[in-house]
Each structure stands twice: as C-alpha cells, then as structure tokens.
Description:
The complex is a heterodimer. Chain A is of the alpha+beta class. Chain A contains 20 helices and 21 strands. In chain A, strands 13, 14, 15, 16, 17, 18 and 21 form a seven-stranded antiparallel beta sheet that branches. In chain A, strands 4, 5, 6, 7, 8 and 9 form a six-stranded mixed beta sheet that branches. Chain A is globular. The mean pLDDT of chain A is 89. Chain B contains ten helices and 19 strands. The N and C termini of chain B lie far apart (50 Å).
Amino acid sequence: xxxxxxxxxxxxxxxxxxxxxxxxxxxxxxxxxxxxxxxxxxxxxxxxxxxxxxxxxxxxxxxxxxxxxxxxxxxxxxxxxxxxxxxxxxxxxxxxxxxxxxxxxxxxxxxxxxxxxxxxxxxxxxxxxxxxxxxxxxxxxxxxxxxxxxxxxxxxxxxxxxxxxxxxxxxxxxxxxxxxxxxxxxxxxxxxxxxxxxxxxxxxxxxxxxxxxxxxxxxxxxxxxxxxxxxxxxxxxxxxxxxxxxxxxxxxxxxxxxxxxxxxxxxxxxxxxxxxxxxxxxxxxxxxxxxxxxxxxxxxxxxxxxxxxxxxxxxxxxxxxxxxxxxxxxxxxxxxxxxxxxxxxxxxxxxxxxxxxxxxxxxxxxxxxxxxxxxxxxxxxxxxxxxxxxxxxxxxxxxxxxxxxxxxxxxxxxxxxxxxxxxxxxxxxxxxxxxxxxxxxxxxxxxxxxxxxxxxxxxxxxxxxxxxxxxxxxxxxxxxxxxxxxxxxxxxxxxxxxxxxxxxxxxxxxxxxxxxxxxxxxxxxxxxxxxxxxxxxxxxxx
Amino acid sequence: xxxxxxxxxxxxxxxxxxxxxxxxxxxxxxxxxxxxxxxxxxxxxxxxxxxxxxxxxxxxxxxxxxxxxxxxxxxxxxxxxxxxxxxxxxxxxxxxxxxxxxxxxxxxxxxxxxxxxxxxxxxxxxxxxxxxxxxxxxxxxxxxxxxxxxxxxxxxxxxxxxxxxxxxxxxxxxxxxxxxxxxxxxxxxxxxxxxxxxxxxxxxxxxxxxxxxxxxxxxxxxxxxxxxxxxxxxxxxxxxxxxxxxxxxxxxxxxxxxxxxxxxxxxxxxxxxxxxxxxxxxxxxxxxxxxxxxxxxxxxxxxxxxxxxxxxxxxxxxxxxxxxxxxxxxxxxxxxxxxxxx
Lengths: 542, 342
C-alpha cells in the first residue's frame, strides 16, 4: 500500500506529463504482480463495487474524529472531496501497516457482504493504522475514482515504457471486460491469447476540432464530410454469434440497447461497426434529451423501448470477415460498409423486420463554401456540425491530428445573471466555482433558473467571483448560496430543446461560461423568451 | 438602557467607546492600537499608532513615517480609565494580543495568533479574560498542523532532492512573517539562499532583532547558472512572472496552511505544497480558547459561523462579527501581495 500511496502522491503533486509517466513506469517495474493489475484496473475505472455507502462513511468518520456530523458535513463542503475530508479529520497515529494494495482490495470485495457492524469495525481499524496520505488513498478506493490527471493513454504509455510492449497493442489488450480479481499480470498484459479477443473492441479514433480556417485542409476532393451526430459513440461487435455494444467510455452497454440484438440475424460474424447511438422517437432523430431517458438505466421497460427506441448511425467498418481492416483507406472501408448495408436492406423482407441500422450519409463537396453552407444546416438535422475525414485515412488509435477533424457549429449564446453558487471540487475546492444562472421572466420581475455552468473562467476570474459571492450571499441552503443578482455572464451552449423536466421549460446542451460581461447590468441580461427564439423551428413543432 | 459593551464592532473597526480608541481599524482614525505589522491589521492613515515596539520598524517600512508609540509586553497603559496592555500572540515577530480592562471587566483581542513556538516571535501566552475576540482562519477540524520540525525536515529534503537533480528550488512565502520563518530553518549547508527584493528588504528590517542565515539578493547581474541547486525565497506574486524565468530549470513550492487542501496547490499550478501556517490549527484554537477561561467568544475572520456554532455546542456564548481581516488568504492571493509590497 505504501508503494501505491506514494505513486498516487507523486502523480497528484505534478502537472508534468513526463514526471507522471516516469513515476508510473517505475511503479510498474517495482510493484508486486497483483498490485500492478489492480493499479491498471483502478486507473482505468474498474474499481470493485463500493462496499460501504457514503452516508455510513460520513457517520463513522465523524465518530472516529469525535466531531458532530454537521461539522463533518460543513468540512466536506469546504474541502470538496469526501475521501480527503475523512483523511483530514481523523487524527493521525504512529502505527503502520504492511498490507499490500491487493490485500486491501480483496478485503473490500468481501466487505460488501458483511454486516454494518463488521464494516464499521473494519474501517475504524484501518483508518487508525494508516498515515494521512494512505488514509486518503484507502478511502478513495472505497468512494470512487482518482482524478489525478492520469488518462488511460498516459497509463498505457507508462506501461509500454515498463514492459517494452507497443502502446497500441497495450491499449487493445486493456480494453473490454476483465476482472482484476482473477486475471494475472501475465495474462492481462504480457501474454497474447486469441480467445480473449472475442468481446474486445478496438480503441476509438477521436478527432480534434478544426484549428484554423477549414480551407487550410487543402484540396476538398480529398475529403468526405458527414454530419457530427450528437448521441453516444459506440462500437458494435458481432463475433461467434454474439453481439457486444461498447460505448466510448469503454463501457460494455449491450444490455441497455436490446434492439441491437436483431443485428445478429443480418450481419455475419467477424464484423465491427463504428457509429453513433441516436434516439429515434416517432421515426426521426430525437434530441440528446431523449437519449438521456435511456442512459443510466440497466433494465429497459417495454414502454420506454417503444417511446424512445434507438438506432445506430454507422460510419465506419473496423473488422470485416474476421479481419482487422483499420489500415485500409477510409474510402475502401466505407465502400465495404455501404455494400454490407445494401446486403442487409435486400435481406429485409418487410418494414416490420427493419433493423435499427442507418448509414451516416457520406457527402462530397466541390468547394469549402458549399461545405460551410451544409454546416449551417446542422441544427436543423439535429447534428452538432460536420465531421471531415480524409478519404485515404486509416483508422487510428486515440485522438490524433491530421486525418479526421470535427467542425462544430458555433455555440449559441445568451446573457444570464448569476443567481446561485456552490463550492467546487478537486482543484477548485474551497472556491465558489459552480454557478447557476437565471434569465428574466416575461415581465422582468423574476430571474428563472435555466442552466448551471462550471467552466469557462480563468483562475483569476474565479477568485474574483468567489470573493463577490462570499461578500454578497443572501441565503444558505446547505452547500448552496443564493447571491445578490448583480453579475452578468455570457453563456454558450451547443444545443437547445423544449423540456418538461426543466423549470425554465428549456434544456440546453453543454452550457458553459463564455465570458464575464462586466460591461452589462442585470437589466440588460436576456429573457426566457429570448432563449426560446433560439430553438430551431422544426424542433419547436415536434 | 443596557450599557454599551467595552468593545464594539463599527464601520471603521473594533472600537472602545470609553477610551475613544480603535483596535486594528480598517479605516483612518485618530488613535489606533495595532496588533502586528501585516497590511490588513496595520493600515495607512491613522493619526496616532500604539503598538509593541518591535512592530515599529516593520510598520514604518511599509507605511513610511507615522506617529507611533511603542510598548513592551505586559506594560499597562491607561486611556480614559481603560487599561490596555500587549501580550505575545506568536503569529509573527512583534505580534500581540490586546488586553482591555475597564471596571473589572476584561476583553482580549487576538489579532492573528498561533500556539506553536516558532523560535522567532515570542510564543503565544493565554490571558485570562471574560470575552475573547479570536480569529479562526483555520477553524475547521480538517486543519491539523504537523510540528514545525517535521515540516522543515520535509522542506530541506525537498531542496536537497531538487539539488541532486540539478534544479533550482523556488519557495513562495509572504514577505513578512512566512519568508523569515522559512529562512530561519533552511539548512544553509545544502546551498545558497537567494531572496526576492521585497523579502530581502523586509528581512533586513528584522535582522537586528533575530539572527538569520546569510541571504543573497537576486539582481539583474545574478547569472543563470548561479541558481542551479540553490533555493530562492520569493513572494507568491513572483509565481508565473518573468522574474523567475532565468531560474529554469526550477521546481516550485508554497508554504501555507491552505496547502492542506490538495485543490489549493493544484489550482495554483505549484509543484509542491508544505502545510505551514502562522495561524492556529483546529486543536490550537480550541486549546487557546479554553485556557483564557472566557465564557463569551467573538469570532472575527476565517470559518467564523461554523466555528461559532461548534463553540456554542461546547457551551460557550459565541457569536460572529464582521471585520475586514483576511488572515492567511492574503498570503496566497498573489494580487494582494503585489499591491501591498511592491
């Protein structure tokens, strides 16, 4: 545990990628085999299920710290991280433990089934023998992931450095469903086995946003364009008469989308599709808001399935007839995908048997300005903008520049008033950085909440707004404060739709602060009516 | 009509109506009794200052020529039948609590204080009183300080490690107080100690009263290679400035109670945080309050409402008053520091 706690401490105390990679690589050279597997699991969000709920954690921590629960809660609001708060309030001891990371995790797995009293005893005993940082790490293992700026990519790089295995191969090996409790480091990382690959997706190829002018990309005849769909990026794998649906977060979500089971009747084994899961209510593409009703639900009711069915908008073919074809040029992969789609259509005998598979329409243009016009239509077809893909591009691993670009529509913006604030988490703990914004109602008598935003200001601006909030608090509601309406911010967002679930009647997508309008008074902020005029007309009608 | 309290909280500061004097006022007044030399406690523009004599050169260095009277610790002086005296607060050199007595009623105002002996200032002394006006900058159970000895072991090890990697160590600390405390306990056997001008000047004001290791002022003539392996003490405002550019390759650290929070360090893009404060931690505050024997507690700055609520649960008659003191916030708010010092 000492080794792992020290690793986390090093990772947490530097902003430099190289230092992180070196610390991880050194750890992978030194740590016990089982600990290595668990470390990979933890850093790729494969923690064991939470053995104790946070309510109990708070209660037992405040008991051990000998402080009232309300005081613990207040401290938590200010510290901004539960594990950190627990580690801080519990007094440090001079004792220590020699248990390994693996031992702790194995104990946590069995802990889940124990009685409350046993759980409490276990936590108290361990909190008492760990030093501050180990206590923090131990509690973090129970409460949630480590947000220490270590991406899967960075970890893979370090592992590659330590094992001399190619980074892309490692990325592939670490994907998918594996259980850190049973797999060995040898099996997971070092050894190659065919049977492991049945459910394994390929690492997704991700695009950067267009950096300068789009015509800098050169000859437009080298490029295909598609709309950039606003759903869930997914890979659908059909191998050995089984189907696997993977989301971009490397989550296996097959069970959440039962409608894709029909693919098995029409698509041969050894096929991997890349595309976007989109909501498709009433036979047309819905809003991301519609999709929200499907995300996060494990069991899908018949009713929901009928009300908000989904489709896959396919745009790439990664495996065909059991062969990895990612190195073929995109134009070839695309041609194979289109002929597969034709075959499927010809097999479907009636409308009733139509499977929820659509092709993302491939577009070619003769000029960049014609392309720009198509981009302006994006909101009408419910896309976020365009994707540009070089015709001869291979399917690369991870976010790479050059062959694929996203060219999103400019965000919509509106001027809103800061009405509520909450303290942030992580690097923003103890600062009020999470804001709620309001727009004027019809007769300009009341500010109606319409969005929350957490990003977009510089650290210096956050400090200044924080100071304003502390000096202008009207009321406190637990961690939330209402503030004197005085500050106006320009809020940007990607999409907009009517919504019954929102007080304002409108849902916005990805709201964030564009800038602080220090030049504006609250009377000059926009109204809810102004916001509603931004909703594209075809969406308003539906 | 109930009689006026001995000390009141007014627009201009803490006011003793009988004596017609203010304690650490934040707006210009005729007569001000001052706890210590930090900018939020000793402000510009009062007609007359009364403070512990050690503070005089420090305040004059900041504010220029002022009309000031110096006192020693424990020396009683009367204004309109109210008896005042200064007592050690242990916050920074010269820092004092102010004891106020009138007709048998005793109030104590702490200014800023800490209970650990830092070896530079005279250690905090609990004073028996009826009403205790206390800061609570770190009035949360999350704040617990390690001993100064352990922290400086860490700091010196960090410096030595940076040196072995051929890097310069840059340590940020507020020019008055923290910088001298760092300086006092750095191990000069590891290397040379460089200082930023603001820190060098303030340290020179204090040198006649405290012995410090030798320092070298960073000037335009200091060469790039002179820094390698050595340490530079700089005010927080130097972070990210062009001034530190010629110290590349360097590693930065900040020493403050706020470094308790992982987020505080990450937010400022500082490589390392040392938890070292000139204020009381949670246990320090509770011990200090208990030792005064006071039953009435007024909290002035910090996590005032939470802390008062807890004190009430412990049975004290505790409340919060609004003041303009900033505690250690001034230490890490770089903008403030540059306004004050440069």
